[in-house]
Design goal:
InterPro entries: PPR_P_subfamily, PPR_rpt, TPR-like_helical_dom_sf
Protein name: Pentatricopeptide repeat protein
Number of strands: 5
Distance between the termini: 71 Å
Strand content: under 5%
Family: Belongs to the PPR family. P subfamily.
């Protein structure tokens, strides 16, 4: 800490006792043996560590000092005129360069040297402060007189003036922050504090009084880095800087996800710096302390603030609401109830929904579950018609989280029916509740809200009451668990799905038993994992009565395929054969993908033929994508010439199969992925005639034109433009240059034909891309050394193999209409 100015010390010692005064007055007649008191005091003051003079010189000069003499001690002409008898006269001195003491003129001279400011500047500052106070009082009188509109206009004018001329930062509620700076940290080792100062001096900081995510992120980054340096001198941080940091770091909103952690650290630092927190800041600091894990300390601080933090109605409300929430989470239900009761009995309008944390805390304790229900009933009665669906959801979630399903069901019934229907304690539920429609609405709401465990508890509870949930809702729960991508969620989804599969297999088995009494009476369980929940876990195993559907198998198949669990998928496929459910193309596609990923493409092809020919499964675009992916060019890094020739024949066969089948595109992804897979497969197999025929056929049947990025990928031989390796970047650059040269050559031809190349219609641009792709294919096929007259027979042969000769060469309109998969209007809607 820098030493205090001497004037401040003297103001504390201006009193002189009467005995000393009488002794000093007798000094005229009696020569003292000791140095008079004022002289001794002045000498001690001169011995104090000198302060640095505010005026820079070549040699540092000491700060001015003072001495005190008492009027009447001796007569001095011209010095005692106008001075009241018994008053003190303060003399100011300053040490010169040679060490001699120089007397200053007056207090104004002393103030000038000590502060570094001119007396006129200090006077102007005082006048400015006086005028600002007068302006504020004037604006308040205008508001009280009813001229609030004019007062607001003048306020906005002053705020704009400050913002424009002095670059003032505005916080919430237009709180002004002028030039912010932390002094005393100018050395090179204070680099982190300098970074914080540069952030505080930003003109762009916190525009409009609402911090953005970047403002909060930068503020915490620079402040957290500088904390260690600032801790050595917290007192150097101005109050305005603390206010600004609090305004930014405590901002409530999605742009500040770590708000409570920031507030906790900042409040600790402000407490260490001796900065007094406002009441609202203290409440927020207590909440942050609780959330950061210091629960006992936060509750103790909350208890101590019962007097200081409840001075206003708003603070009274916030204080008790915070207490209810903290105590409820901490399990102190008795104190939480007392705090809630105090709040509800207060004079102001009560927040009745503060009882929800109390209900949640009471429901956690089995012995107080009935008390939790009574609290819910009281809250519902007090809210009356103002109760919202969200309030019911909170209560239902609280009871489900503690396995109080009966109470949750009663709350949902209260929400759904205006008339009172009591379902608690009844073994048989009324018809309005015991139906799949009612259960389905509840499960759909729970799954949509993300309460998956609660939905599962509802399924188990209602099945015990004789109500079987619809497979659609159960499949929805399984899908939600799988989409969570958590180990626990995937495990629960698998258990429930196989439970449904067993129910389906048992149903099929019992149906066979009815048809033939020779079938032994037993539950058929050919495969699948056993339920993981058993009686050893404290509850009997759950056997789901909802039977599996094709969607159940599809959900599991997709999950197994994406996780490369081929053995599990084979087991699932075996169970599916016994389920007597019609095979869907989706399930077939997952099995095809799994066989291909496991390196068994022949099994994938055999399965496709069996499903489409024997079981009449209609393939879709994803089925043909899976077929083309079985080619060795898509599975192996190196291929022999024989394998290349085999891939060429299979690719043309798959293309013919795709054209002959009746199907349509079901998604924009499939619309772009299928042509891409076909072109790359043929390019890798070096089937250049087949590529040209495929482009022409897909244009006529799919309305497909390859986009420019695909042309670059085909030219460079890479499957993606996103890989940033050096080798891939070089190939992409070469491919882009080749495509650019082909396009320029095409544009020259179009210009010679009389077309304006700056305003080409869409049809011409699409035709140009197809033409560029064919030229690219011919450029790739230079090694074949084909002559133009030799290319045409190869194209015709490829068209016959691919089943599109009448489409490409004859352009038979009937054939085109028969094979067409998607017209232009539908393609645009899908895309």
């Amino acid at each position: 800490m820098p030493p205090r100015p001497l004037a401040l010390d003297l103001s504390r010692t201006s009193y002189v006792c009467q005995s000393c005064i009488s002794t000093l007055r007798n000094a005229k007649t009696t020569k003292p043996s000791l140095q008079p008191w004022p002289a001794r005091y002045a000498s001690r003051a001169a011995q104090r560590p000198p302060l640095r003079a505010p005026v820079r010189t070549e040699r540092p000069r000491a700060s001015p000092t003072t001495s005190i003499t008492l009027d009447g001690l001796e007569e001095r002409p011209g010095e005692t005129e106008g001075v009241p008898e018994g008053s003190l006269n303060v003399n100011y001195f300053q040490e010169g360069e040679g060490g001699e003491m120089m007397k200053l003129r007056d207090s104004e001279h002393f103030a000038k040297l000590n502060s570094g400011l001119d007396v006129e500047v200090e006077t102007a500052i005082g006048d400015l402060e006086k005028k600002m106070v007068e302006t504020i009082l004037m604006l308040k009188r205008m508001e009280s007189a009813g001229d609030k509109e004019r007062a607001d206009i003048m306020k906005q004018f002053f705020k704009k003036t400050l913002r424009d001329h002095y670059k003032v930062k505005l916080g919430p509620e237009t709180e002004a922050f002028a030039a912010l700076h932390i002094p005393g940290f100018s050395r090179p080792r204070h680099r982190l504090v300098a970074n914080l100062n540069r952030f505080l001096a930003r003109d762009s900081g916190v525009k409009g009084g609402e911090p953005k995510h970047k403002d909060i992120f930068d503020c915490w980054k620079y402040y957290s880095s500088a904390r260690k340096s600032l801790a050595g001198s917290w007192s150097s941080v101005p109050k305005e800087v603390w206010d600004y940091l609090w305004m930014v770091l405590s901002w409530e909103g999605p742009e500040n996800p770590h708000r409570m952690g920031h507030v906790y650290i900042l409040a600790k630092d402000m407490n260490a710096a001796g900065v007094a927190l406002r009441e609202s800041q203290q409440l927020l600091a207590i909440e942050a302390m609780f959330i950061e894990g210091w629960r006992d300390e936060a509750i103790e601080a909350w208890k101590k603030g019962v007097v200081t933090l409840t001075t206003t109605p708003d603070m009274f409300k916030g204080y008790h609401e915070l207490g209810v929430r903290m105590l409820s989470l901490h399990g102190d239900t008795d104190r939480a109830q007392r705090a809630a009761e105090t709040l509800l009995k207060s004079a102001g309008p009560p927040n009745i929904r503060i009882l929800i944390p109390v209900i949640r805390a009471l429901a956690l304790k089995e012995e107080k579950s009935e008390e939790a229900w009574d609290t819910y009933q009281n809250m519902r009665q007090m809210l009356g018609d103002t109760i919202k669906i969200e309030d019911y959801d909170e209560v239902i979630a609280a009871f489900l989280a503690t396995n109080r399903v009966e109470y949750a069901l009663q709350a949902f019934v209260d929400m759904m029916f205006s008339s009172a229907i009591d379902v608690r304690g009844k073994t048989k539920l009324p018809m309005a509740v015991s139906n799949q429609f009612f259960v389905g609405k509840w499960l759909k709401r729970l799954i949509g809200a993300g309460d998956l465990d609660g939905a599962y508890k509802v399924i188990v509870y209602l099945q015990d009451k004789g109500i079987t949930a619809s497979p659609i809702q159960v499949n929805g729960l399984i899908g939600a668990w799988l989409r969570s991508e958590t180990a626990e969620g995937i495990e629960k989804a698998g258990d429930l799905a196989w439970n449904m599969i067993r129910a389906r297999l048992n149903f099929v088995h019992m149906r066979h038993r009815q048809q033939s009494m020779e079938v032994p009476v037993k539950f058929y369980d050919p495969c699948g994992p056993k339920p993981r929940r058993s009686a050893a876990d404290g509850e009997p195993p759950f056997h789901c009565a909802s039977r599996a559907t094709a969607e159940t198998f599809s959900l599991l198949a997709e999950n197994y395929c994406s996780r490369n669990l081929h053995k599990s998928l084979e087991e699932l496929w075996g169970a599916f054969q016994y389920s007597e459910i019609k095979t869907t193309s989706f399930l077939m596609n997952q099995v095809l993908r799994s066989y291909t990923q496991s390196g068994e493409p022949n099994k994938a092809l055999n399965l496709y033929r069996k499903m489409t020919q024997e079981q009449n499964v209609s393939p879709d675009a994803h089925s043909f994508i899976a077929l083309f992916n079985t080619l060795s060019v898509n599975l192996l890094g190196t291929r022999s010439q024989a394998m290349m020739e085999q891939d060429t024949a299979l690719a043309r066969q798959h293309f013919r199969e795709m054209i002959d089948r009746k199907w349509a595109f079901d998604s924009p992804d499939a619309y772009h992925l299928l042509p891409r897979t076909i072109l790359f497969s043929m390019l890798k197999a070096k089937d250049y005639p087949g590529m040209i025929i495929a482009v022409r056929a897909m244009n006529l049947l799919f309305d497909y034109t390859p986009p420019e990025p695909l042309l670059i990928e085909l030219a460079s031989g890479t499957m993606t433009l996103r890989v940033k390796s050096q080798r891939n970047a070089g190939r992409i650059m070469e491919g882009a240059q080749l495509i650019e040269s082909l396009i320029k050559r095409s544009r020259v031809q179009l210009h010679e034909a009389g077309l304006d190349i700056e305003k080409l219609p869409k049809e011409v641009i699409e035709a140009e891309r197809r033409h560029v792709l064919e030229n690219l294919v011919l450029a790739k096929a230079k090694s074949m050394e084909l002559k133009p007259e030799e290319l045409e027979p190869l194209l015709q042969g490829a068209a016959r193999d691919m089943g599109v000769y009448d489409v490409v060469f004859s352009e038979d309109l009937d054939k085109i209409a028969e094979y067409r998969k998607l017209d232009a209007r539908e393609r645009d809607q899908e895309a």
